[in-house]
Design a protein that fits this description.
2 domains; binds ligand MTE; 5-stranded mixed beta sheet; alpha+beta; Sulfite Oxidase, Chain A, domain 2; binds molybdenum atom; 4 helices; 216 residues
C-alpha cells in the first residue's frame, strides 16, 4: 500500500523527538547512577558523599569535554608535555582516603583515586630552579603548592572520588588532592601544571588575602 509522504514525515518526526528525549534522560540518569554506585565505606572507614560538597566555585560548575581536553605541563621543565585524558590515566594509579576542609568550615572525607603529580613532572623533567607548582584551571582559577610538598607527600591528581569518575561539578577531569591543605588548594578542572621559580606566587584566593600556606 502506498503511504502518503506527509505520513512518513510525521512518523520520522515523532521518532526523532522520542530519541532526543531518551538521550536527555540518559544524561541525567548517568549522573544519578554515578552517585548510586559510589562507595560509602573503605577498609572499615565511613566515607562522606559526593554531595557533601557545597558548590561555590568562582564561576560555577564547568563542563569539560573529554575528547578535546589536554593537560599541559609547562614552565621550568626541560620538555613541556601535553597529555590527553586517557594518557594521564595511563600512569600508575593510587588510592587514598583524604579529608577536604573548606575555609567555610565544612569538610568531607572521601576515597580518592588518581595519578601522582610527581610521575607527570618526572616525564617533563623539572629544572633545578623550580620551587612552586602552579595549577591552572578551565574556569580561570589558579592556586599553587610548594614543589617539595608535591614530591615528598606524593600529591595526587584525582580522576575518581568514592570509586566513580569525578562528576562535572566536582572537577572532571582532574582535581588536586592537596591533603592537609585547605580546600582552595584543591584545584578542580586542572588544565595546566606550571613549574615556577617564584616562591611567593599567589593564586586566585591567595592574592585576595587567603594564606598562601593554607596548612590545616
Ligand atoms: N577550578 C577551581 N577549583 C577550585 C575552586 C574553584 O573555584 N575553581 N574552588 C576551591 C575551593 S574554595 C574548594 S573548598 C574546593 C571544593 O569546592 P567544591 O565544594 O565547590 O567542589 O575546590 C577548590 N577548587
Ligand atoms: Mo573552599
Amino acid at each position: 500500500m502506498k503511504q502518503p509522504l506527509s505520513r512518513l514525515v510525521a512518523v520520522a518526526l515523532v521518532l526523532s523527538v522520542a530519541l532526543a528525549v531518551a538521550c536527555n534522560r540518559s544524561v541525567s540518569e548517568r549522573a544519578t547512577k554515578l552517585r548510586a554506585v559510589q562507595v560509602s565505606e573503605y577498609k572499615g572507614e565511613k566515607l562522606g558523599s559526593i554531595d557533601d560538597f557545597r558548590e561555590n566555585s568562582i564561576k560555577g560548575p564547568q563542563a569539560v569535554d573529554e575528547a578535546s581536553y589536554r593537560l599541559e605541563i609547562s614552565g621550568e621543565v626541560t620538555t613541556p608535555r601535553t597529555y590527553t585524558y586517557q594518557q594521564v590515566l595511563g600512569h600508575p594509579k593510587y588510592s587514598k582516603v583524604v579529608v577536604l576542609n573548606c575555609v567555610e568550615g565544612w569538610s568531607v572525607k572521601l576515597l580518592w583515586e588518581g595519578v601522582l603529580i610527581k610521575d607527570l613532572l618526572a616525564e617533563a623533567g623539572v629544572k633545578p630552579g623550580a620551587v612552586t607548582v602552579i595549577f591552572h584551571a578551565y574556569d580561570g582559577y589558579t592556586t599553587s603548592l610548594p614543589l617539595a610538598y608535591v614530591l615528598d607527600r606524593n600529591i595526587m591528581l584525582a580522576y575518581k572520588m568514592n570509586g566513580v569518575v569525578l562528576p562535572p561539578e566536582r572537577g572532571f577531569p582532574f582535581q588536586v588532592v592537596a591533603e592537609d591543605k585547605l580546600g582552595y588548594k584543591w584545584a578542580k578542572w586542572v588544565t595546566k601544571i606550571e613549574l615556577s621559580d617564584d616562591p611567593a606566587y599567589k593564586g586566585y584566593w591567595e592574592s585576595r588575602g587567603y594564606d598562601n600556606d593554607a596548612g590545616l
